[in-house]
Prior knowledge:
The protein is of the alpha/beta class. The chain contains five helices and six strands; from the N terminus they run αβαβαβαβαββ. It has a six-stranded mixed beta sheet, sandwiched between helices. β5 and β6 form a beta hairpin. The longest helix has 37 residues. It is globular and about 45 Å long.
Amino acid sequence: MRQTPRRRFTSSLLGLTLGAPLLARAQSTTEAADFWTLLRQGGNVLLMRHAQTESGIGDPPNFRIGDCSTQRNLNDVGREQSRRVAAAFQREKIVLDEVRSSAWCRCVDTAELAFGRHTVWSPINSFFQQNGRETQTAEVLRALKSFKAPRNLVLVTHQVNISALTGGFVAMGEILLTRPGQMADGRLRVLARQSF
């Protein structure tokens, strides 16, 4: 049976629509494989946005560092998400040399649940509701210049910090894999990403 132009267009559109999820799944699987392969090679800086939190943006007006009751914290989904990160890194037998965290409780809790340790590093504290974007970002990039393979470093921080460092967006609990020697336009270039 010969197809009319309209029927051919509809068939093509249907093929694209049905194929899109398969293509997205294939790309996601490839990115995941690349993530673990690159991570095993060492010399990576992982930028992790804290896991899922209670709803809201930023922190309440009475926010104080060191007092979790005044902050927006991880919810049950975020705590479980962090445990999935821990299980994946154990399964993949990944060695992490250092884990640094923002002082915000949601980052500290993510780091502890996902990696079992952390050191607070103020340059990756949030600057969402305050100044510091340029100075903090410059300090992080300067510190990373001396970072050498085969070590792997994790920075558990906030969306605003990761966007300033890479120019991209990251979901809560997502990890971006970068290598300090491979920068683009003065920013860290994202080589792979992994969601949990």
